[in-house]
Design a protein that fits this description.
The chain is mainly α. It is built from three helices and no strands. It has helices at 3-14, 20-50, 85-100.
Length: 103
Amino acid sequence: MSSDIAVIKEFAESGISIPARMAIELLNRLEVAERERNQAHGVIAAVVSEIPHRDSRNGNAPGHSHSVPGVWDYDNGALAGKKCGWCAVWQEAEKIAESRGKP
């Protein structure tokens, strides 16, 4: 449990002038935000853990072979010229892995 949640619970339990409904609503929002952060961390950790097992993709995510790394090719219709989301995630994960040192 984060320290913010613990502090708010302490205030709510001590009767200090925070209306109970507001405290409960804030606690619920903080708990949801904390759960979402933990889920996002898990997803990024999974991507980062995969990096040492992949060969260089020249700036593209696994399975992608854009001519311009991370940018959709001209023959991809409405996506042409736009940044590829999966490649962007992969590139950021590579930076994280490099900053931590690959196993």
